[in-house]
Write a structure and sequence with these properties.
Shape: globular
Radius of gyration: 16 Å
CATH superfamily: P-loop containing nucleotide triphosphate hydrolases
Distance between the termini: 8 Å
Number of domains: 1
CATH class: Alpha Beta
Bound molecules: adenosine monophosphate
Largest sheet: 5 strands, parallel
Structural class: alpha/beta
Order of helices and strands: EHEHHHEHEHEEHHEH
Number of helices: 9
Strand order of the largest sheet: 2-3-1-4-7
């Protein structure tokens, strides 16, 4: 099974699609955002520093991110994985080339800025990693404010606000978008329009996974 790398602007649904792929194919889901939020929740000094960066919508340093990914990939010992949120810069992508073999495909989840803003406004998340959207009937929780999966209270991420969104989206344009050409040139890029029903998106992604 090919490993999967998601490239996406904020709120494109890479976490949700990763979760669905994990359930269907048994991938290990590596979300750098989730790993950083776990570090914050641990109350460590590093977590405190990271929180200041993430809450403003800025990117955490390449050095730290590459260290995190290296140790995570060592930990999973060759199991098939999804990278959700890494790489986000050219530097990170080049480092990843030194770690990965050729057994991967990159999927760019395409979403306009306008649609990303709408999603950010309605998004609620659970600490278990599940994400919901109050602006989309299909993505609302069954009981308002409560996670369908684990029953915990849903919260708004500290960086899901208008101010941090501007920075996050600019970071996507200025640092991450270059990766689309990077992986296209390696013949590793698939583009999926995500301004559609969640199951239709998943069907397209599953086809990519199944064909490769
Ligand atoms: P996400 O959950 O993927 O939206 O990530 C949340 C935040 O974590 C981002 O806005 C960044 O501040 C930080 N982050 C996650 N992955 C990376 C990365 N690969 N490089 C730098 N910062 C990252």
């Amino acid at each position: 099974m090919k490993n999967i790398i998601f490239i996406a602007p904020p709120a494109a649904g890479k976490g949700t699609q990763s979760q669905m792929l994990k359930e269907k194919y048994g991938y290990v889901h590596i979300s750098t955002g989730d790993l950083l939020r776990a570090e914050i929740a641990s109350g460590s000094e590093l977590g405190c520093e990271v929180k200041n960066i993430i809450d403003k919508g800025n990117l955490v340093s390449d050095e730290l991110m590459i260290d995190i990914i290296k140790s995570k990939l060592t930990e999973i010992k060759g199991k098939p994985f999804i990278l959700d949120g890494f790489p986000r810069t050219l530097n990170q992508a080049e480092s990843l080339d030194g770690i990965l073999d050729d057994n991967y495909e990159t999927i760019y989840l395409e979403l306009s800025r306008e649609d990303a803003v709408k999603r950010i406004e309605g998004r609620l998340t659970c600490s278990c990693g599940k994400s919901y959207n109050m602006n989309d009937e299909a993505l609302k929780p069954k009981v308002a404010g409560i996670c369908d999966i684990c029953g915990k209270e849903l919260v708004k991420r500290d960086d899901d606000n208008a101010q941090a969104f501007i920075v996050r989206y600019d970071n996507f344009l200025n640092n991450t978008k270059v990766l689309i050409d990077y992986y296209k040139n390696k013949n590793k890029l698939h583009i999926v329009d995500v301004n559609r029903n969640i199951n239709d998106i998943f069907e397209d992604i599953s086809r990519i996974v199944a064909n490769d």
